[in-house]
Structure formats: structure tokens, C-alpha cells
Input
Amino acid sequence: MSAFFVHIGDCHMGPNARNADRWRALDQIINENLDRADLAAWLIPGDLNHARMTIEDRNAWAERLRLMAGKAPIIICYGNHDLPGDLDVFARLASKWPISVVSTPQVLTVVGPAATFSVFVLPYPTEAGLVSAGVAPGDMVPTAREALDVIFMSAAAQLEDARRRGEIALAVGHVNVAGSITSVGQPNIGQEIEIDSAMLARLGDGYTGLNHIHKSQDIAGASYPGSICRLDWGEIEAKGYLTVEYADADAHLVTLPLIQWHGLDVPAMYHVDGHLHRDRFDYRVTAGPDGATVDPPQTWTGCEVRVRARFYQSEKDLLELSRAQIFANFAEASRFELELIAVPDRALRAPEVAAAKTLTDKVAAWASVTLTILPDQVLPFVPALEHGDPDTLLAQVQERVSALVSPTTTVEAREEAVA
Output
């Protein structure tokens, strides 16, 4: 009989608008694999939660873990988002098969329904843990490799012993591999404690499954399933989980595993950048904020959309038509966010206007720049605005307006015309 492992990526459960999507994704994984006769273990190497667990999420995890452990053992380790002590309670749940919660690097030997296997488990390498191992705090990132390499050498020896005993040997952990690619297409190099291809090669043949990077990928002999749900606007890629199948596990044959990625039905997330004009909204869909332009979906139905719209501050009160177009464009989205960003422009003047010395010249320059046709009567009044007496000017304007009003016009209409 084969031995079948299910590797679940970063879940990041927490009290926010997308938590229900994450639980639905996890339930899809459980339902698709719960009744497999060759199920050997569930692997969840870190970031079960986004921050400190709420009571609701703890209860929801406990319910699902008991169900899963009724079929096969569960291997859990701490990720960088799992706070110390938060996951320990799950190891005490009453279940048919054990739930192992690992907080320090170690090799576990597990007897499951489909196979006996040994697994090297590497929780997220914390600064506190490496300091306790003798690494100087100031030299954390550059010298962490030496401390981790010792851990890998010890684990490699134990995994090799397991292979000699005819056991399946594999590794899981929560760590960054140098050069791995994030969802926005950037490699992670030297930004945090990481492992490299030489360290992974020490572990020998077999499956190495890692969490931490949210974009699914294979790198240096390790596999990331990616997060089970899109967690921010930069995660535009498809989401899924991994399964690992060892054939003829009961015959103690040394074989390479078959690794398969399975898609999850989770909402797509799109970031939209654009500019609001008085009569339209010009936009492009990007690979996250400030990302490259990507093709929009055929339909926005079921998608989450965030629109980041910039507009000129001077046109703030003239944008109702284009705002209405935004809401009409994305009316089918399941969730919609609109961020309006004002671009200051009131203090900016055309060079011609700024260079003009008199108010008359400035008005004439403004009309030229904006292609505005000024009536012949306007410019002669401008010097009076700049240099004349305000009361005298007002009286002159009222007199001219009164002359334009018909003698039969009512007093109220005349006053309204003057105003």
C-alpha cells in the first residue's frame, strides 16, 4: 500500500473579512483527503494563525484537528506568526492518532495507519532560539547559517538511519530558502534567517515541504505549497495544497515520492490603479500595489477588488460621474474597496501665468493656457480689481447690472441679478 501525506500551507487564521474564506479552503483540503485509505499524515508546518489566536479560532482549529487526527497523525510546527504557546493546546486533544506540536528542531518517528516514517521538523528559526544556541545577537543573519547547518547535519544522520530501517524519511519546516520568490515576484535574499541548497542537500532523497512563502514553488529540492487563501492584494497567483505519495511503503522500498499540487476554490484578489477625471476613470490591473500590469479577469464576479484612484485636488467636487463609473465597473465583485488619493495641484501654475507681472497679464495668460475665450469687457475691469477702491468698484458693477435689467423687472429679480 502507498503512503499518502497532505501538506497544508500557511493558513493565517484571524479575525478579519477573509477568515471565512480561509476556513472554507481548509475544509476543502480536509474533505478531499479525509477518507483516503492510504492517508499517512497531515503536515501543517506553521502559520496556522496570523497573530494571537482568538477563542473562536482555537475552537475551530480544535474541531478540525480532532477530525483529521481521527484518520491519521498530524505534524504541526510553529511559524513566525504563531505566538509562543498558542499551539501547544492542540497536542493535548484527545484523538485516535497523535497531534505533534513542535517548537524546537527535532526528528520525530511516527507510526501511522499507512506507514512508519521519520520526519525532521524545523520551526521558524527565531533570534531568541539562535541566541540560546550561542549565536551573537548582532551577527544574527550572517552567522545563523552555521548554527542551522549543525542542526541539519544532525537531522540528516537521523533520517539516513530511518532509511536504513526501511522507513520513509521526510522533512517539513517553516523557513525561507534563499532566492525563493514572493507573490509580487521579488526574490528573498538576505532579508531574514534563511537556509540554502547545500543545507537542504544534506537531508538526502525524500520530500522536503516548507511553509512561509505564500507563492507555490519548488526551490533547491524543497516545495512550498503557498498560502491556502489569498491574504493580501499582492497574492494574485492561484492557491492550493500539496500531496506526497510514496508507493509500496509497506514493502520498505526506497522510492522517490510523487508530489502533486491541488487547486483551491478561493476568491481571486485584484489591485486596480487608476486616475479619476471629470468624465471618466482610466485604470489598469496590476500585480499588487506598484506591480506590473496584468490582464483583468473575464468577469469580476466572485472577485475581491481594491481600486486605488488618484484625482486632482482641484477637481474634488467635479468627480461624481467618474465615481459612479467606478462602482458600475466593479458592481459584480464580491468585495470592493475604494481608496481615493488626492494629488495636490492647487498651488501649481503654468509657467506663463507665473511669469506674468500684472493681474491683467496673468488673466490673459491663464485664458491662453486653458484655451478660454474672454469677453471683450473682462480685461478692462481687471486693473480696477487690482488697484481700485472696492466700494467704488462694487457700485459701478451694480450700476451696470441695473442698466442691463428691463424696467419692468421686479425689484426682487433686480436684486437677484445684482447679487
In short: The chain has three domains: 3-263, 269-343, 351-418. The CA atoms of residues 242 and 261 lie 5 Å apart.
